[in-house]
Specification:
The chain is mainly β. The protein has one domain. 13% of the residues lie in helices and 45% in strands. It has 1 helix and 8 strands. Strands 1, 2, 3, 4, 5, 6, 7 and 8 form an 8-stranded mixed β-sheet that branches. A hairpin with a 3-residue loop joins β2 and β3. The chain is elongated and about 50 Å long. The chain starts with 19 loop residues before the first strand and ends with a strand. The model has no long low-confidence stretch (mean pLDDT 82).
């Protein structure tokens, strides 16, 4: 046992973050742009290239490419944003469920995740709108 591993009665415990399990959720709605012939949301756009692969570019410079379907691309994009916004980089276990709804000119992707890991104390429990 090392000296650093012992905690004496007169020492303070500084409260290191504990591993906890959180339920996170987010949704993203895309609308079809007739003018540009692509799916768009507030800060990103999605298109299909000549080889039938789906790609995405967001305003902050992120680029996703080479997906076989729009659903697969949305799973990766929305799931990645959810993990980033909730700051769960150290999640040891993440399980996700996806729901899609589609109208002729609108697609909505809803993601719920259960993550186990360290979370900052300022992160609110519950869902968020991306």
């Amino acid at each position: 046992m090392f000296h650093a591993d012992t905690l004496y009665d007169n020492e303070e415990n500084f409260g290191l973050p504990e591993i906890e399990e959180r339920d996170l959720s987010a949704s993203l709605t895309l609308r079809w742009s007739r003018k540009r012939k692509r799916w768009e949301c507030r800060n990103a756009f999605f298109w299909q290239d000549a080889k039938n692969k789906w790609s995405c570019r967001s305003q902050d410079g992120r680029y996703y490419y080479g997906f076989r379907s729009l659903r697969a691309l949305l799973k990766s994009y929305v799931g990645g944003l959810l993990c980033e916004k909730s700051l769960c980089y150290s999640a040891k276990n993440a399980r996700a469920k996806y729901w899609f709804s589609q109208n002729p000119r609108r697609v909505t992707c809803c993601v719920t995740m259960r993550c186990t890991g360290f979370f900052p104390p300022c992160f609110p429990k519950g869902g968020m709108k991306l």
